Amino acid sequence: MSPPAPPSTGQRTSGTVDAVVVVHNGATWLAQCLDGLAAQTLPPARLVIVDVASTDTSGAIARAHSGVRRVVPSVEVLRLEQAVPVGRAIEHGIAAMPAGPNPSDSWVWVLHDDTVPRANALAQLLQAGLRSKSVGVAGPKIVSWEDPRRLVEMGLQITRTGRRLASPARGEADQGQYDNRADVLAVSTSGMLVRRSVWDDVGGFDRAFVEHGADLDFGWRAQLAGHRVVVVPAAVVRDASAGLDGERPGAPRPRELERRGRRAARQVTLARCSPLAAPFLALWMALSAVVASLTLLVAKRPRLAWRELTDVTALLHPFATLGARWRGRSTKRLRRDHLATLFVAPSVAARTTVDHIQDAITPERTRARREAAATTETGPVADDSESLDNLPASLPRRIVSHPGFLAVAAVLVATVAAWRDALRAGALSPTNAGVAGGELRPVTSNAYGLWHAFRDAWHGAGLGTGAESGPHLAVLSALTWLAERLPGVAESRSSAGVTIAWLLFLTPVLATWSAYLAGRVVTSSRLARALGALAWGTAGVAATALASGRVTVSVVHILLPFVLAGFCLAARRDGTFTATFATALGTAVVGAFAPPLLALSAVAALLLLVLGPGLRRARALVLLLVPAALLGPWVARFVEDPRLLLSGPGLLSTADDRGPWGVLAPLLGAPGGTTWAVWLGAPLVVLGVLGLASRSRSRAQSVGLAGGGLLALLGLAGALASSHVVLGSAETGVGRSAPAHLWSGLGLQLWLAGLVVGLLAGSRPVLASLAGPRRRWGFVAAVVAAGLAVAPVLAAAALWGAHGIGRTLSVGQATLPAVALEQGSGALGNRLLLLRPSDDVVDFVLAGQEPGELLRDLDRAPDADETPLVNAVADIVGGRGADSLDSTALARLGIGFVQVRGTADAPLARRLDSSQGLSRLGTSERGILWKVQPLRAADGGSPATAPSRARLVDADGGLLQVVPTSGPHAAVDTTLPAGSGPRFLVLAEPAEWAAQALVTFDGRQLEPVAGSAQPTYAVPLTAGTLEVDLAAARPWWRLGQAVLLGFVIFMAVPFGNRRSRRRS
Amino acid sequence: MRNVSGIVRAGVVALGAAALAVGATRVGGTDGTVQLAPASARAGLPESSDVLVDQASLVCPGQQRLGATGLRDVKGTVTVAAASPVAGVVKGAPSTGTGTVSLLAGPSSGGLGQTSDQGAVVSAGISGADPVLARATGVLAPGLVATQVWRHGGDDDRGLAVTPCQLPSSDVWLVGGGSGASRTERVLVSNPGANAVTVSFEVLGHSGRIDAAAGHTVSVPPLSREVLSLDAVAPDEPSPVVHVTATGGVVSAVLDEQWIAGATARGIDDSTRAAAPGTDLVVPGVEAGGAVWLRLANPAGTEALAQVRLLGDKGPVQPDNLRAVRVPAGATVDVPVPRNATAMGLGIRSDQPLVAAAWTERRATTADQMGDFAWTPATPALGGVAGVLLPNLRGTTKRLLLTAGPSPATVQVRLGSGQGARLSTVTVPAESTAVVDAGDADAVWVVPGTGTVRGAVSVAGVDAGVPFFSVASLSEAPVRALSVPVRQVRN
């Protein structure tokens, strides 16, 4: 029941009031509405209940309501058999009551079936109406049906551009803050009291606006006709907003209603504004709708964005608007600028917008704590974070006493100590080319080179390949690109190498940081998380991976905590799609570097998809599909070669991982550990397993801990089994390969992650016992456990710092001769043939500007037909051709230089010395360098200074000119002069290259000449532009990947908050 | 217990980890290993293999006694002959196919003669001071043999030098020369390559390394030769041994020696490349009928103790004075070898690697006992076809001397060129020397069968009552080359 109405104010006024109640399927509320009407201190004289084709019991209620009939002398129920707009219904109702002799003293009160007026509502309205002759329309304060202390509407607020402003916002608490409002542009028809003369004067509702915007249009026209429209705060009407809340059966969806309302407001504005302003207003509406829509899209409010965009549809009915304008011309008495004060001021509108945006994007400060409180238990100990919040210390003090910061700082110190020798050698200096050794190959490239290696259809070291390249190249390319923004790095000879070196260097620090943040899903205790992060960041498996240059494992080590936490969040009830998309992105990156983990994550997502309830399935679907889709066609290669799923660059091992400690070393998380230091891992293992036994507060927590245990076991099983699954062979030295298997460290990372989960979970009872000992032995056990947890982790970190990263990684291996680098990356684009002879085999590297393999991978059959190259090299190093070697085969392959690792006394060196067309340039510690003579120029051709990747030849094969290249694998964009005879473009690439490259001359595509050993194209005699484009492999896939990546990043950016989204 | 599930959870993990660990220790070695792809140690590389050469070049020194500044020019009658064996001699060679054998001279590589028939001998007279290249291509490349014959009559500068043309190399040991007023030695270094080669010399002498020669380098332009007078760097050295090292390419080197003792012409001969320092050497083709000296050089840093045996027709003989020959470090030693009734080989065993060659002479018994001599270096055992062409030597006695290694050897001998050659199979007893009379054959081909064998061809004749004499060692013709597998790696 409504609260008791305030006593009626003043004596009975002289005006007569007729009431119209519009009913449409409003059985739920109608009785109360009529009760309210009956309870009026000033009951209306006549009542017409317009039943708009109700299909429920509304009609019966209307006919049977006795209360209202007791109070109102004349009650009539007008049944409309067809559904008509509310405006029409009101018109019918008013028409059913013939006007009295003095229409200016006669009033009509319009009510909807879902409104309940307070007892004095009509009296208050009428009083306001009678106070001044000029008042034509009076509206009540509309409050919420359920909670009358919450406001719904107080007059219609609209900007000059027709944007409805929710002022007050629906649901805003009523503290009387709007009670000084009087004159408004229009009021809602719900509870509207209108002077009969004004109704007749204005002519009722315009036929263009009888449903939505009827109230606004009516009020506006009344104002223009010189009648005031006021809102009466003392008159209160409870409104169920049944239409907007979607509770009215058969009504359109609430969102649709809202959209139509907005649209109608715009149309009304267009119809009632100054005719001169109308075109500009229309333009502004269109523009602002698009801009607002885009802004909302960026703020991740797609629904709101769509709503904004639908405002544009207001412009789609210009004739209706013009008609309304034409019809309204006769009643207009005031100048439009007289109404200026009735609109919402632009500054207010702007401020409201800014407030909304701010409200939407500021993170919810309380959310984290709420979540922590809901999911974790800190025990009797107040988390120190709370005490910090309660007693805010100075910022520096807060930072240095922050356990997470301390853990990261400690790891940084240990890392610097461990890298001391490498740092002294300039491992991280941009003037060097990074580090190499172990699994990591020397690399001389930059972001551009890595990007092309990923993107181009024909790419890769040596003669190249057309196979889909690993997406890790794209990730490294992006990282390198970012690094190149730093001063000095872009000028480095190998910004990629420098970036990789930095990545390796920062791995423990970043891994510690990520583990600290990710640990939040298990416990909110900063101390416990800091310890877990320290254990993770300096884990033996990470140190071993670093020491052997396994960049892929480093990346996994950094991202794995995030991914695991993300999966955990996605499986929780309160998980978000933002976190899920971020996790999917992280999973994709991890998968790009370590495909086995991609497989594992897919299985986990599949499990969640099958077992998870509700929205979690949708999140699981994202986790299942997005990473695979992001990695694109590369994933399809798993089908061709399943070994790819079990291997990865830098993830192989050709040695027996088992050290002197046997199976104990992997069990203790230190693969290949040789010293007693492996035992430092033992407490972590014991505590981690024990921690999994800690009591869980909820089923979710219990499932999470079981998941952690399963992860640990899976990882351990994978680590122990990996050495029994031979995936193929991998290079171990010059001319040597050995059976290769997946490095056990990858599995051990999971084992370790599971143990850290246990450690974090187990920290809760331990910390609780330490803070508030209840039993003595419990306290002692807690002290022992804490000591066991802390001391070995710190000792291991210190030991790692002291031992250093070993000697496998060394600085400056990627030094190719400067002259070769210059020619290789320049217009000539020629290659360096690097020979590594051993006793019975010669390995060779064809080094060009294309980066070679960054990390050791499985031996694979070449994609291109290497026969000419192999024959040329075999002729050089083998005995077949005696001493009179001819270097033209090399020049044809675009090889500008030959370098031999070895001494000048080596037989191979002597052979090359005596070869025709090779001249020795010099000797360095890396070997002896020969220059290859360029091909002989044809008559009239311009001689070359060195062999080139692309050349123009005449019909006899004589060199006409060198064609300058502009990118890897003979990408060309140049202008050729007119020729005098038949001429051909020959590219020093394998025949398979031609299938991927697009060669055009003046925009016309050239077809390769059939039967030629190298890709050859007949070039027209006219001068023109020659282009060789190694169009992106599968351009649509690439585009799709890019779009998806953009979308995923957009979705993953934690922009906006739930609160604002809920409200929207 | 209230926390049963937790304990179960931890217990399962602990037990699972333990079970996995125990299981891992049980499955050891290659048991239980799954191979998803064949893992080869060589990653699909072909093994190293011998392949038939499709191009071969041999370097002949050209007119030895022309074009040396400061030395007297003596123009001899020089004939160079080159040939490829008839089909079927080289095992595995294709019976059909094309190829050429050609003789080229000088920096312009002008052609002196060419043939495209298997077994046909192409020969040419040489008059210039440029090296001559015998080059064969295609099917004619395997088994290419070339020989240069220098001959001059008269009083002082008389003699015969049959010089097998050599495969170029970067490291050549030459044994020859001696002291005496008119005993001159010139080292001819020919560069068959397309780039200039720097050649350095090291001379070991009777009392150690000769400092004056150390660091002596010459640059040999492409397709040319340079002549070094040994007397200029090591005057009065009684027993020099020259070590030629090439940098920046490969060369062929020959030591040409002329000896006029007083007014007596003692002869002329070319000493060709000796086997690289070794502890078990054999000098084949030591003819009987004159004084025989053996020169040993010890390039090592410690004194060598050598044992020299005579490998005659009846097996090895150990003379007492050759039972223990001391060769000081870095020095050379000349030891006289007892006369033997028949041709023989010399077997040398030592505790340090040595370089060896034998000197043999034939002298007239009348007047001032003019004569001629020959240097026979220790040679590596023959692994394949070898041969000596004997152009322009009608009326001389030609003998093929074959010395077997520790086991008996069978050798197929082909005397004469072309299809009209006489074929025979010779069995050489272990550590013995067999002599095959070559009659008037213009070519001697040897195809070793079983056992290890070394050989030489001696040519002897008489001109105006004075003997002329030379020995050409047999060295393996270029037939096969080790094809080293190459493999491309991606970085």
- What is the CA–CA distance across the termini of chain A? 30 Å
The profile of the biggest β sheet of chain B is: 8 strands, antiparallel
Give the mean pLDDT of chain A: 86
Structural class of chain B: mainly beta
Overall pLDDT metric of chain B: 88
What is the number of beta strands of chain B? 37
| Radius of gyration of chain B from CA coordinates | 28 Å
Number of strands of chain A: 27
Beta-strand percentage range of chain B: over 45%
Report the C-alpha radius of gyration of chain A, rounded. Answer: 40 Å
Shape of chain A: elongated
Total helices of chain A: the number is 40
Helix content of chain B: under 10%
Q: Which blocks of ≥5 consecutive residues of chain B have pLDDT under 50?
A: none
Query: Hey, roughly how much beta strand do the residues of chain A contain?
Result: 5-15%
**How would you sum up the major sheet of chain A?**
9 strands, mixed
Overall outline of chain B: elongated
Considering residues with a beta carbon less than 8 A from a beta carbon on another chain, report the largest interface and each chain's count: A-B, 91 and 68 residues
Would you give an account of this structure?
The complex is a heterodimer of chains A (1064) and B (491). By secondary structure, chain A is of the alpha+beta class. Chain A has 40 helices and 27 strands. The longest helix of chain A has 28 residues, at 744-771. The two termini of chain A are 30 Å apart. By secondary structure, chain B is mostly beta strands. Helices cover 5% and strands 51% of the residues of chain B. Chain B has two helices and 37 strands. Chain B is elongated, with a radius of gyration of 28 Å. Chains A and B meet through helix 31, helix 32, strand 12, strand 13 and strand 16 of A and helix 1, strand 1, strand 3, strand 36 and strand 37 of B.
